[in-house]
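Researcher: Good morning. I'm working through a list of sequences from a screen, and I'd like to move beyond sequence-only analysis. For each chain I'm collecting a predicted structure so we can compare shapes side by side. This is the next one on the list. No need for commentary yet; just the structure.
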Amino acid sequence: MHVHLIGVSGTGMGALAGMLKLKGHRVTGSDRAFYPPIGPMLKACGVETMQGFSPDNLAERPDLVVVGNVCRPDHVEARAAIDSGLRYTSFPAAIEEMFLPGHDSLVVAGTHGKTTTSTLLAHLLHDVGLDPSFLVGGVPGNFEQSYRLGRADGPFVIEGDEYDVAFFEKKPKFWRYRPHAAIITSIEHDHIDIYPDLASYLDAFRGFVAKIPREGLLVAWAGDPHVRTIAKEAACRVSFYGLESDDCGDVMPKWMGMLAPAQAGVQPIDVFGSGMSCGRVLSPMAGAHNARNALAAIALATEGAGAPLGDVITAMTRFRGVRRRQELLGIVRGVRVYEDFAHHPTAVRETLRAIRSRHREGKLIAAFEPRSATACRKLHQDEYASAFASADLAVLAPLGRDLPREESLSTQEIAAAITRSGGAAIATSEIAEVISSVTSAAEAGDTIVLMSNGSFSGVYDDVLAELAW
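Model: Good morning. Structure tokens for this chain:
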């Protein structure tokens, strides 16, 4: 079958293209540009790429057109596909119809931690020999790509995004993923462009939980009141998890973790299941939030997929993380430079806490680019000031989107609030100022963290190069 993907350079669409090639289909795809890492990956796996969008890209009349989420109703190529009568679908629908049948779908959902937790779950199942398929939203350190086709009847791990499917199907993506078992890591109002209020956001998760069959399993973080409330509505069995320090309300978690002091870049976690000691997990991931992610993955791997607990605990030590999630880009003249995907204030706070717990010596310099639809709006204006509490210096980049002034986040106000609370912050007016601010402040023994859910205008290489001078 000839499948054509519109917007093929996206992380998810690129993975779908690779999976279709593995299935033996002819795959073509169009996009504005083909930057690394997706562009080279598409070429390597034999996808025929077309730069730019045009009805001419459909001249061979493919058997199926997958319309990416980046397309709007007036998108020239998507419109041509639909109006000419070609069979078309969305990315989540293609996954549901072409890849999930015959598999137990293990879906990792939540506002924060989806990519890390789903990637870790895939690694654990693969390491213990269950031969899973998976599709995750990042580039795993343990695998060459963000996707894999495993045993025909094996588990399928998929990252469950709550963003909407496509302009012609305004429903959450994860409603399409046929969850047999699932994780919900957290629920905190996000994607304000899709969900105007908290109630609508919660409804997306309610609908997701309702799709888990009665014989299925929901693994849920007990420390989040929204997660607790929605999990209690589930028809399936619920297995709560949490850290000893979490406020779990009226819930007693089945899976409990106790953090020991970090040592040599490793976070020891003493794990208890149903009140019984399961042993000490040595996690290569820093921070309390990553300890919760580890507990969630262990719970679903063992309870939902039948993986032996002892083997899973051993497999944790071999996890190599995910690109753009607390990824160490390099050490230049004694200055460590990390990249992270954090953009919501909670993610910013937890990322900085985790990096600080790993590197207690030296200054922690945090540069942040507000780029997502939620981050660029003033919805979380007040929370951002406290999110940088672990940093010795916060450098705030210009907004990555043009919005009406009355709707926009004010980085100047965030910087002022940080300064009033005794911290140090700079609200920059251009990317060059971000680079100069972080590099001029850094000395040997310090740590720089660059946070954005976009490209951050390529500052990563520029920061490393500037430090080298």
